Amino acid sequence: MRTQKNVAAAVAITLLAVACSDAGGPGGTGQNFDAADINTNLQTVQQVLGGGAWQSLRTLGPRFGAAGPAAALAGKVGAGLVTAQSGLSPVMGGVRIAQALLSSSNAHLVAPQLPPAIRGTTFVLDGTTLQYVPDSTRIGAPANGVRFILYAVDSATQQPLPSQELGQADLTDEGDPLAPGIALRLTIVMDRVTRLDYSVAVLGAANAGTLQATGFTTDGTTRVEFRVGVVGAHSQDTTVAEVQFAIGVPSKGFLATATLQHVSLTGDSAGAIQVQVWQGLSQVGMAGHATSAEVQAVFQVNGIPFATIEGDPNHPIVRSVDGRDLTVAEVEALVGIHLVVGRVGEMFDCLMQPVGGILGAGAAS
Length: 365
Fold this sequence. Notes:
Blueprint: H1 4-21, H2 35-48, H3 52-60, H4 72-85, H5 90-103, E1 121-125, E2 132-134, E3 145-153, E4 160-173, E5 182-190, E6 193-205, E7 208-218, E8 223-235, E9 238-249, E10 254-265, E11 268-279, E12 282-290, E13 295-301, E14 304-311, E15 317-320, H6 328-364
Helix pairs in contact: 2-6, 4-5, 4-6, 5-6
């Protein structure tokens, strides 16, 4: 029988192999930088991630009432990404995910499955406390999981409106045979349309951990597919973390992938980032280093150096390598490619909230 450490290592190898196999996406050899199309598709991704399903998750995530050691993963991941959204560079924000996974690799094994006592339960928002509580009068929750009712969000206060139901989120346990790992699936349905459907798999050992979230989301018109993978390992005073993601719009021929690598040595740290974006015949790559205070990277278009980006990660300066003035569309596209890493970090934060919340509630019960 394989040990937990061996299982985690096997998952890590599989995760990295799958991510690397995507590196040859639908690129081409065209000479033009299709900045306008890249901008359009970056905006499309942002629009889909700004839909009602995501608004509900962003607002209601902290209200799932997570408690107990099994919630440590989601809580630490969420805390790292909140910091990222308020000034931390995208690469460092992504690394926080891996570090949280690593530090929680033992804790999350406490409750690898949804407890039988809460399966088949529907959770609703309490109008007074604005926290999720079980409602015994509601039926229809999945037998191998739980259901959360989702609500509209007040645009001014960003508070949920308990009187305005939007849909439901079903969280099911797909990993009973895989214990002590975690394999969960969450599906959000609004207006009889599946708006978000993804699976989360987690495995951990004493000094290593892996996590993968895979699925799709749609605003009813455009489908966005994604995969986020995290691998962490620790040895003596050295921590190595890697985050990989792929996000794309199949109908538009758009794909973005990234690898974030981070190494910490007794307090000193460095982060490296590689991003590839494919759009039609354009293949735009970005490679460099980032800290919380500065980003420094080079863009290539179809393998040819095109521009540099440096300075404040949230307000970087972009320059062409040949001295010419970049067009507004080109600057917007390059900055957008840089910021897409942060957007995926925000997305990942939302994905982890209900998973960690219900596992925490289970551990505490």
